[in-house]
Amino acid sequence: MANKKFLSAILAMTLALGMTVAGCSKTAESGGGSATKGGATVGKTDSDATAKSGGSTTSGTTSGSGTTGGRMTWTAADVSSIFGTGGDSIARIAYGNNMFVAGGDKGKIAISTDGINWKAGGDSPFDSRIVGMAYGNNKFVHGSDYGGKNIAYSSDGVTWTAVSYDDSPFDYRSQIQTIAFGGGKFVAGCYGDMAYSSDGITWTAVKDSTFGSDTIKAIAYGNNKFVAAGNYGKMAYSSDGITWTAIKDNKIDQVEAIAFGGGKFLAGGYGDSNSKLAYSSDGVTWTTVTQSVFNSGLHIFALAYGNGKFVAGGTGGKMATSPDGVTWTAVKTPLFLRISAIAYGNGTFVAADDYGILAYSKD
């Protein structure tokens, strides 16, 4: 915690010195602004990516942050009143019913209709980190890393109801890592276990996820198929979320995120220098991305698709974009430290990190 506060203070001072104040007389506050971490900051600042604008600092957040060849301009939103200036992690973002919902540490939730202006949603029934979230069938569903009672649902992001412990397919050891919706079903994954639900309320355990006891980190739906992945590069696919088939030819050592868009699945995580991203048109046969803007040692934690492009982020506040999942361009942004989540909706990308920073881009 001391290291986090020290780092936040240094970042705030850097912003105050290096950026102009636009539209507000306030200066950057500790913990507020220059970098975010968590799940959407992976892209690397390559030589072909040049900074576009310096930005401004208001109330501990940085707006108008730099762009690069990736042509994305990120502006920080002020969520300090929700997630604190000390930097509570924002772990997941979902979009549905014309609304973004972001969740993080201590069950804190924020909602926004435009990705720009945010207000507090209703706190999760669980005083623990929200680590899975999806929208479908007129409701948001989230999971937490607290064992046992760990799934809740809401139609508006304000009033949340916990799934009864007796009705949960997960035991007290379970910590939900990911939730996806597609084909009329929610699918949730944790430490090797999976469950599915048509309404987010009544859940049924998957008999064999094919993951054994290994953690399922990400699930995505596209082309009438679910694809799940996680530790040790294990992957599996399913047409109904109930019966799963293991994918044997794994390309990434550890998978942290999956997205679908433009007719492709894209998986990201970490491994050796050329094994951080892989793509597939069918979710079964995968190809490693060899041209990458991510150095060895950097991890990809978040992926999203929208506006005709993929956006990837991870450690070091790195971010990159790609029109096809194959060729990538770095995005330079001083906002993030470690991106944990990216979502797209209504013409807007929203990204967040492990230090309570949330930002949006219309590019």
CATH architecture verdict:
6 Propeller
Structural class: mainly beta
| Estimated share of beta-strand residues | 35-45%
The profile of the biggest β sheet is: 4 strands, antiparallel
In total, how many beta strands? Answer: 30
Structural Rg: 19 Å
Model regions low in confidence, pLDDT < 50 over at least 5 residues: 1-69
Q: Strand order of the main beta sheet, please?
A: 3-30-29-28
Average pLDDT: 80
The CATH topology label is: Neuraminidase
Fraction in helix: under 10%
CATH class term: Mainly Beta
| Tally of domains | 1
CATH superfamily: TolB, C-terminal domain
Describe the structure.
The protein is mainly β and 363 residues long. It has a single domain (2-89, 175-361), classed as TolB, C-terminal domain (Neuraminidase, 6 Propeller). It is built from 2 helices and 30 strands. Strands 3-30-29-28 form a 4-stranded antiparallel β-sheet, with no helix packed on it. It has a 4-stranded antiparallel β-sheet with strand order 4-5-6-7. Strands 8-9-10-11 form a 4-stranded antiparallel β-sheet, with no helix packed on it. It starts with a helix and ends with a strand. Mean pLDDT is 80; it is low at 1-69.
